[in-house]
Fold each of these.
Amino acid sequence: MDQPLSKNNNDIKDLSFEKALKELETIVSRLERGDVELEESITIYERGEALREHCDRLLKQAEARVEKLTIGADGRPKGTEPLDPQ
């Protein structure tokens, strides 16, 4: 049986990326099955949106911390610079 969700989303800020993503996947699965009553659908959709925003924020923070090595003309590492994924 699915675990009841809190109506208060303040706990989301303390979730790790992995836990938030797992809960978001559970919400999506429940909504896709269509066996949730309308009022609960709205509540879990709103929580899902808050979880998605939290995961997005954590990913952006992680991307900002990732660096790539820069290689000098002699082929040796000379330092780091921010990773530009594009």
Amino acid sequence: MKTECIGDHVKLNGKIYPCTVSLAMDLIGGKWKTVILYHLKANPKRYSELLKEMQTVTEMTLSLQLKQLEKDGLILRKVFGKKPPVKVVYSLTDFGKTFIPTLDAITAWGNQITEQKGEFVNA
């Protein structure tokens, strides 16, 4: 029997999922979570840096996705200073770093699709 099918359901942090794929997609699914993790892969970044690199994301969406990734333990939010303006830096946690091989595979696949069926363009 496949590992992901050992039980009828899987449970993480009190949440029940029908399978391990559903659990994984809850953690990294959606339009922006994987993109955020990609931008944090090489080094920590401030909110404004992420916003600049992800030009089509709205501030509200970025903020919500960062909060969810932090809640799920994939990223760490570190605050420097006590009085505004404070410096906030986001980075991958050790758990978030376990996603890097999958992220590299997704990136390679995206590059392959673009080379075969699309094109790289400069805006």
Amino acid sequence: MLFRVAAIAIALSLSACSSWVYRIDIPQGNYLEQKSIDKLQVGMTKEQVKFILGSPVVVDAFNKDAWHYVYKFKSGRNKKYNSKKAFILTFKEDKLIDANGDFTLPENFYTPFNEVTETEKRKEKFKQ
């Protein structure tokens, strides 16, 4: 009987120490920063986007023109540090046409990439 009580007491005391066990942080997916998102513009090719953001975690099997950048962080310390972020890019004819997700798009996102501005047109006109 004394052995059973001692075994139970040891088991309970060891389970109380489980909070002292070190648990690692687990990051999964593509970690994106806002400064990388700020470089995106409509009209960029898939290669240009891949250069800026890296390869996507998920390329939709049914829609090759949709790239999904997903990031999940599981903290080993506390659940309040856990986070999830998703960012989806849509292409048409190998050009970026739309983006949405957990990041804010820059002001110049909808300005087509490599578009000739009015001031550049005027400069070209005066050169001739």
